[in-house]
Amino acid sequence: MRRALSITTGVAVLALLAGCGGSDDKQTLTGEDPATSTPTTAPTSAPTSEPASVPTSAPTTTTPSAPAGPLTQAQYQTALIRLDQRLAGDINALATVKTESSLSAAMENLTQTLNAESLALGSIKPPARAVAANRVLQLRLKTAATALSAGDTSDVGCGGLAYVSQSLQRQLTTTMSTAVAQLRTLGLIFGRTLPDLGPEPTDTRPANGDVIIRSGAGGNGALRVKNGSATDVAVSIVSPGKPPSKPHIMLYVQAKKTATVYRIGGAYHLYVKSGKDWNPKRRQFSSDCSFKRFDQGFTKNQGWEVQLKPSVLGNASSSSVDPY
């Protein structure tokens, strides 16, 4: 006997495969320089027949809007070191976030610091040979701030806090690399506090039909998955009472392909996560994730076929669940 289950629009399609002989029985179920100020000379009154007092006015004091310059090479290097030090705290905060709210706060603080330092660089006078490099550094800081402020934290539930934090750190280092290299050609050092995480790990796409996890006793159940969607999926077969992070079986099905898994033990619930850039260590997609659970439970020792493609003729409903 084979059972079929189709999915409603926005969900997927299912079908039962357990071969028990006889005819097929289909069941339908219903995301700026200061000017040098000069003391004002007190005017003296012209001599008269009577003594005249000579008023003197106090010197006018002004506060320079920019330091005297240009700076020497050593002075400019000191300024760069201090800039590095001012960035260090916010960069470290970004690297050590523990919650999504602390990630957002770290991003905002670092954005403000980058903008402030970019503005401050415009008020100093670097050595003549470093004027162009200083301008590049100023612009790169501004660019990094803009990119960070536009950073998306929606993938926290997908790749995790560490993944998003490391991606932002790598982005910062990459953005600043042009300025770092140009300063280095002048014998100047900057960027020692920028993150050095190395290249991003290469994501490894499993083969279609790979069983990523299998635990517990087997049985006579079978599940065929037809992935008609444009993204890969990881289908988790989860025993009753177990969280989706602890599946009995996890099956990987590439986009537009079909795969079948056998020896499913007992009744189960079906969870499907989809996305891009699979990370084999975390057993998670790193971006564009979606997490669903079929509302219907699956009985033991039966064969089901699931079609993961939205359809107005679908007959299986699903619900969004927390990332797992």
Structural commentary:
This protein has 324 residues and is an alpha+beta fold. The chain folds into two domains: 3-29 and 203-320, no CATH class; 73-184. The protein is built from five helices and eleven strands. A six-stranded antiparallel beta sheet has the order 3-6-5-8-9-11. α2 (100-121) packs antiparallel against α3 (131-149) and α3 (131-149) runs antiparallel to α5 (161-184).
Shape label: elongated
Q: Measured on Cα atoms, how large is the radius of gyration?
A: 33 Å
Structural domain tally: 2
Largest sheet: 6 strands, antiparallel
By DSSP (H or I, 4+ residues per run), the number of helices equals 5
Strand order of the largest sheet: 3-6-5-8-9-11
Uncertain regions: pLDDT < 50 for 5+ in a row? 6-13, 18-66
What percent of the residues sit in helical stretches (DSSP H or I)? 25-40%
Order of helices and strands: EEHHHHHEEEEEEEEE
Q: Beta fraction of the residues?
A: 15-25%
What value does the average pLDDT take?
Answer: 82
Kindly, what is the distance between the CA atoms of the first and last residues, rounded to a whole number of angstroms? 34 Å
Output the structural class. alpha+beta
